[in-house]
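--- STAGE predict ---
source: upstream dedup step, 1 unique chain passed
mode: sequence only
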Amino acid sequence: MDWSERNLTPAGYRGKVETPQAQAEEARLPPRGKQVPVVESNGLCSQKQQCLLQTAHKKKDVNHLTEEMTQQTPVKIHLKTVIKQDTESESYELMLFGNFYQKGNAFFLKYDEEVEEGTVHTIVKIADNNAVILRSGAIKMRLSFHMDVEKNGSYESTFGTLLLSTKTEKIEHIKTTKNEGLINLAYDLLMQGSSSGKYEMSINYKEA
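--- STAGE serialize ---
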């Protein structure tokens, strides 16, 4: 009870002398404390606090189920990129470990890459005829892909944000098993409107 709200103390109103008759009348009165309303919900809850507690447990169960539905599987990743510009060609390969998971009809690969600037966090999302590559951390970049459609992206550098765009020629996702497959991307990359070359990227992944 809040004893200051109505000028109360544990002994009654401040400055008031209690007589036996007053005490007897006081005993017949309902208590002044806060009443907890009884809530009937199909007989499942007897008090409001119990209902709130049960609701919290239900929300926890739903969140746990959502986490299970998007459970991530550790995978081993073999990434190969070929860059062609004019008559020159270069390629590089990486062996990485990451995670693979599915949300709806979209598939995701997450992995970290160590570069001179630090750690780069990469997410590859592919669904139907479109894909997205997001990089954050030491390098911040976003590339979007859609068959036969030019898509805008961005790259944050020390000189500011540069405009990127892609012209996609191929998007392919071949699943050999539930947690194993191959992603192929082929596209023209433009930076600030100028061609930076043709890229062919293949990502093999399988459960680690």
